[in-house]
């Protein structure tokens, strides 16, 4: 029964401590009121509906916006107004209609790397620590050969390396980033006066 | 020796799980707000709700996946099994909001559009969750 305590404890520690999580929220700020923007084909301006027949459709707008957010940030605000204003102004438009907002991609090589570092670091530390304890327990105090003294050093080195990698994962998490790719597709329109 | 063999197996299982999770394609269609075929104005500008009475409805669409890995050993042979369960949570956001527009409100304002990412990675399991939600403000009909 006693023999099971150590492996079970090690496994529990591995399962609990090797978890890497990311909980992030990207909040889209409402578009600046100076540029009426609608997701549908009609707009609502100054208390009145402006249908497709009431405005001149200019060329389509297609924007791909990449947003880089630190992994440590729980919430980030994205302002798409400057991108839309710039695109509409280039076409001579004063509003945007049929705007399709899409999340095209999310990627974080840093998160994958943190996860790898944490898992491998913790696992190596625990396992080599167990080996070190096992060697220490089974080495007779009278033994003095060079191989007997090298083995604990090797396991000790691996254990320290694993612990360093585990610690490094937290630093990497603090410095890492995630990249969001946002798609904005619509049409610039000119409201008839 | 046994510890060494066990460590290799666990490392293999963990690597396979992480690779399987990272190779799944991004659920772009589910995470798109597309109302371009509607006639009712759906404004994405900031709303001043103090002047208008109405109600806010929340819509959410997304994707969730869970990848687990298990290793079995029979004599000298070992096998690593990776399984991934994934599902779309609700129909795409635009499609859900189309239902709101059937009642033909005068206009609709999208108060906020939020994208949530939840990732979890451990040695034996990884999960992903992407959610796009919208709070849609619908003004009360004029009497």
Descriptive notes:
- The complex is a heterodimer of chains A (193) and B (143).
- Chain A has 193 residues and is of the alpha+beta class.
- Helix content of chain A is 45%, strand content 33%.
- Chain A is built from 4 helices and 7 strands.
- In chain A, the strands form 3 sheets. A 3-stranded antiparallel sheet of chain A has the order 4-7-6. Chain A has a two-stranded parallel ribbon with strand order 1-5.
- Chain B is α+β, with helices and mostly antiparallel strands and 143 residues long.
- Chain B has one domain.
- Chain B contains 2 helices and 6 strands.
- Chain B has a 5-stranded mixed sheet with strand order 2-5-6-3-4.
- In chain B, a hairpin with a 2-residue loop joins strand 3 and strand 4.
- Chains A and B meet through strand 1, strand 6, helix 3 and strand 7 of A and helix 1, strand 1, strand 2, strand 5 and strand 6 of B.
- Strand 1 of chain A pairs antiparallel with strand 5 of chain B.
What's this model, at a glance?
Chain A is an alpha+beta fold and about 190 residues long. Chain A has helices at about 1-15, 80-90, 110-140, 145-175; strands at about 20-30, 45, 50, 55-70, 75-80, 95-105, 175-190. Chain B is an alpha+beta fold and about 140 residues long.
Helix content of chain A: 40-55%
Strand content of chain A: 25-35%
Low-confidence stretches of chain A: none
- Beta content of chain B comes to over 45%
- Describe the biggest sheet of chain A? 3 strands, antiparallel
Q: Report the end-to-end length of chain B measured between terminal Cα atoms.
A: 82 Å
Spans of chain B of at least 5 consecutive residues whose pLDDT stays below 50 are none
The class by helix and strand makeup of chain B works out as alpha+beta
Record the SSE blueprint.
The complex is a heterodimer of chains A (193) and B (143).
Chain A: H1 2-17, E1 20-28, E2 43-45, E3 48-50, E4 55-70, E5 75-78, H2 81-91, E6 95-107, H3 109-138, H4 146-175, E7 177-191
Parallel strand pairs in A: 1-5
Antiparallel strand pairs in A: 2-3, 4-7, 6-7
Helix pairs in contact in A: 3-4
Chain B: H1 2-23, E1 32-33, E2 42-43, E3 54-74, E4 77-89, H2 93-101, E5 108-121, E6 125-139
Parallel strand pairs in B: 2-5
Antiparallel strand pairs in B: 3-4, 3-6, 5-6
């Amino acid at each position: 029964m006693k023999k099971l305590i150590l492996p079970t404890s090690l496994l529990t520690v591995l399962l609990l401590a090797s978890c890497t999580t990311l909980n992030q929220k990207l909040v889209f700020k409402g578009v600046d009121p100076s540029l009426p923007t609608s997701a549908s084909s009609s707009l609502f301006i100054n208390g009145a509906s402006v249908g497709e027949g009431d405005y001149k459709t200019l060329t389509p707008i297609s924007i791909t916006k990449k947003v880089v957010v630190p992994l440590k940030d729980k919430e980030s605000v994205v302002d798409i107004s400057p991108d839309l204003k710039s695109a509409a102004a280039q076409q001579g438009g004063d509003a945007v209609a049929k705007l399709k907002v899409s999340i095209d991609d999310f990627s974080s090589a840093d998160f994958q790397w943190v996860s790898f570092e944490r898992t491998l670091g913790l696992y190596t530390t625990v396992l080599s620590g167990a080996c070190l304890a096992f060697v220490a327990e089974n080495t007779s105090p009278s033994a003095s050969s060079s191989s007997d003294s090298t083995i604990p050093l090797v396991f000790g080195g691996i254990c320290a390396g694993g612990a360093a990698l585990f610690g490094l994962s937290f630093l990497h998490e603090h410095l890492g980033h995630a990249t969001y790719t946002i798609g904005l597709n619509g049409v610039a329109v000119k409201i008839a006066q | 020796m046994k510890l060494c063999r066990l460590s290799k197996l666990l490392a293999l299982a963990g690597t396979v799980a992480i690779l399987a999770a990272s190779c799944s394609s991004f659920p772009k269609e589910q995470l798109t707000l597309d109302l371009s075929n509607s006639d009712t104005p759906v404004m994405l500008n900031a709303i001043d709700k103090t002047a208008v009475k109405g109600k806010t409805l929340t819509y959410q669409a997304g994707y969730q996946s869970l990848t687990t890995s298990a290793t079995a050993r029979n004599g000298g042979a070992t096998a690593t099994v990776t399984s991934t369960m994934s599902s779309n949570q609700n129909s795409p956001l635009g499609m859900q909001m189309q239902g709101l527009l059937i009642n033909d409100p005068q206009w609709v304002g999208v108060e906020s559009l939020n994208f949530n990412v939840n990732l979890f990675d451990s040695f034996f399991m990884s999960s992903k969750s992407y959610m796009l939600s919208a709070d849609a403000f619908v003004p009360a009909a004029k009497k």
